[in-house]
Design a protein that fits this description.
With 134 residues, the chain is an alpha+beta fold. 60% of the residues lie in helices and 15% in strands. The protein has helices at 2-12, 20-39, 42-60, 64-93; strands at residues 98-102, 109-113, 118-122, 129-133.
Length: 134
């Protein structure tokens, strides 16, 4: 058993392995697999097969830089969605105590205390001052 583990470790040396994109592809494969159990469609079967081949290609690839770049693109795309939903959740949570405004210079979202009247806000990102009417 130990010999097999050492051989596998030597085989995987210098190869990319698994990452977040592979985890997503694996989850997508299982969803398609479950759907295909009930629908039994040849197109879904073909997509499942392509996903498995692509996953193994990425895991066994020696071109680490390209696989890392693919994963970074995936993380960038999913990060936008995660940030959007996190901001929406925070806006709902803080709706009674805070307001959210956008900086006119750098377009970052600022969380400001909900105090009626005209205030001057300072963006922590670009240090620009701007007037806010709450």
């Amino acid at each position: 058993m130990r010999y097999l583990r050492e051989r596998l470790m030597r085989f995987m040396q210098g190869r990319y392995g698994s990452d977040n994109l592979n985890n997503f592809l694996l989850a997508l494969y299982f969803v398609l697999f479950i759907v295909n159990i009930f629908a039994y469609n040849i197109v879904l079967w073909f997509l499942e097969t392509l996903l498995v081949v692509w996953m193994f290609f990425r895991i066994l690839s020696r071109n680490i830089y390209k696989r890392r770049a693919e994963n970074e693109k995936y993380l960038k795309i999913t990060g936008r969605f995660k940030n959007f939903f996190a901001l929406t959740k925070n806006r709902i949570r803080d709706r009674k105590t805070h307001v959210y405004r956008t900086c006119p210079a750098c377009k970052s979202t600022l969380r400001l205390p909900k105090q009626k009247g005209k205030h001057t806000a300072v963006c922590p990102r670009c240090s620009r001052r701007f007037d806010v009417n709450i």
